[in-house]
Amino acid sequence: MSADADAPITQDVVTIPRALPEGPINLVGLTRAQLREVLVASGTPERQANMRVGQIWQWIYHWGVRDFDAMTNLAKSYRTQLAENFVIELPRVVSRQVSADGTRKYLVRIAGGHEVETVYIPEEGRGTLCISSQVGCTLTCSFCHTGTQKLVRNLTAAEIVGQVMVARDDLGEWPVPGRPKDETRLLSNIVLMGMGEPLYNFDNVRDAMKVVMDGEGIALSRRRITLSTSGVVPQIARAAEEIGCMLAVSFHATTNEVRDRLVPINRRWNIEELLDALRAYPRLSNSERITFEYVMLDGVNDSDEDARRLIRLIAGIPAKINLIPFNEWPGAPYRRSPEKRIRAFADIIYKAGYASPIRTPRGEDIMAACGQLKSATERARKSRREIEAEAGVTGLTSR
Ligand code: SAH
Ligand code: SF4
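That is the input. Now the predicted structure with iron/sulfur cluster docked in place:
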């Protein structure tokens, strides 16, 4: 690992303004309060503002309407006024791949020509959308493809909500007036497990989740949203209080020595500090269990001793342990643990009383599985030697 442990980890994130300084403002991703503010600023009378927010909100997030002219409960002149000042715009889907197992991967283009990936995973009677929160990631977990991408910027709330809307468009899941509501949702769950560290883009992630959870729109309950963090300890309590969604943590190791290498943020906030923050989470967020994600890396973190240590560490925390077979990517410095090893590890955890599902890799054939996301068009790339140096291994290149 070449990074200095004291260096600010968020350094290279470029913050861009919510709306472009010129031209119409995109209404997507604004909270209700922000929507009210921009409407008033553009001439909507104060006394009508709350009602207008409610109406426009429903059109955008309940009906999926993009054209102000279709907002038929608004006066024609008001619709024209809206169209002059605002747009309802989603990121553009530049490619859509469908895996043999039905997983869909969308490559979406956002302002500045950057691209991020969003993955839809269909399941029996439900479906999960894995969304990105940053272009790339400032953290450099040595087993993660996204961590090898150099260029990083935070996504705006519009770009985060936009990924959900893009998927609903593709799934044809906006209600149709007059047609009875279908209670089974194709997109029933969201996981913030795509590219980026959501807690390093806190405000935009929070605002976007508030929009998605709002009962008069997309209306996904907070229990159906899971935010995954590598362990940004000071933001965990805030996530509980201000978002209140389910929490997953990329734990991945049972000693600080190994976790320092796999999840370098551990040098900033170690296992003990992380566990303290996690212990407080369920009470603060009024949620049940925390998901501990654990990537299975051959010979690195997958011994019986690791499994037993893991149980000792998390004692007292309501938890589910999600074992993730390592998904390989070109140049990855690790191998996936053998299936037998993963099962033996899962068995120890299960016998200690924890649910220990082994995550089935989905969409591997289209590089859509956990940790494989990385915009193919993003040319700035770390060298293989840099990746190996960060992983603390050498010589794999010649294998
Ligand atoms: N930055 C956040 C969320 C994105 S990563 C975080 O780290 O939690 C989502 C999950 O995929 C994390 O648990 C991550 O550790 C895991 N992951 C990353 N690369 C992987 C790979 N190559 N194989 C399997 N899981 C991986
Ligand atoms: Fe970033 Fe998460 Fe990948 Fe680590 S695992 S590099 S925090 S996206």
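The chain has two domains: 25-87, 92-391.
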